[in-house]
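Protocol step 4 of 5: obtain the predicted structure for the target chain.
Materials: sequence only (see below). No template structures provided, no constraints applied. The aim of this step is simply to have a reference model before the mutagenesis design in step 5. Sequence pasted as it appears in the construct record:
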Amino acid sequence: MGVKITDSVTWVGKVDWELRRFHGHELSTHRGSTYNSYLVRDEKTVLIDTAWTPYAQEYVDSLAEEIDLNDIDFVVANHSEVDHSGALAELMKRIPDKPVYCSANGAKMLKAQMHRDWNFKIVKTGDKLDLGSRQLIFIEAPMLHWPDSMFCYLTGDAILFSNDAFGQHYATEVLFNDLADRDELYQEAIKYYANILTPFSKLVPKKINEFLGLNLPLRFICPSHGVIWRDNPLQIVEQYARWADDYQENQVTIAYETMWNSTRRMAEAIAAGLRNFDPTMKIKLFSLSASDKNDVVTEVFKSKGLLVGSSTINRTVLSAVAGFLEEIKGLGFKNKKAAAFGSYGWSGESVNIVTTRLKEAGFQVVNDGLKSYWNPDRDMIAKCREFGETFLK
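Step 4 output (structure tokens):
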């Protein structure tokens, strides 16, 4: 059943309460997600985006209860990723000749994924689709977060349909930001940004300024996941501008993996040194094998500094640490300091390897790291505390 946003715009998406993994198994979604789809009725009717492939039949059947599918004049595909376009193939079986509006890359990617050649209408920034008393204005948004991504703006109702930008993986029945739990909402919003949009942060302010430069009124931001921003919708735009500006809080994250607890004891002693030097500093400590990697990435995103620890095994690092270092390298964090630590019993390569990987990931490594030969004794524990204090200095 659809939910009215305005007299002319209805949410016709799908709430997925069960989703716990996304992008294969790459992203955790502790609170599920939504696949937001929007129906705009004027003299002409347009459907904006659909739903994820497993829900294609359910989505189209539900949409047919909301509107006679033949009454849909246009379909807009803001993004070809299948969590937005997965139900398109099922829909187009029913209305095969209806035009599909998308970017040039969108048409290319939809053809490659769906192996269909529908009636594609290629649009670029500034193009308009006349609906009667309203228009849709298209705004290309390449690499936010795919090459084909775009937004569209509805005149009259002053709605920005922003696709993946400004969204969250957050299953909710309340639909609007002023009805949602603000703490949960912003936790999911920053996690979404940190894990998906960080590599494209330099593009975010350009796109924000481009939209603001159009001087269009704004009543709603309707993303493709999570809540609709209707109460002060620019609050999430302003937050994105802050997150895109090499964001950091007064926080240090310690991420480690250990074999026989020696590296764990080092991590805890380093945390004590951090706390002794600055009691106001937020310190987050994670065993990488026991923690959700996307939650750790979110805390790294919020941090000024990162300390990574690993025992040495087979002349290299533990697998959980190796995977984590590869993850943060791909995200391309900026303006963050880092250092390595770890224990060893034979050859002791892990600290040097972690140091090298941190440099490759773009962190400013502040020292050569700290090694403990076997289980840290009282003197080594003191060195670990000093290591934490020196890192903050």
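Step 4 remarks: The mean pLDDT is 96. Residues 3-244 form a domain with the Metallo-beta-lactamase; Chain A fold (CATH 3.60.15.10).
Proceed to step 5.
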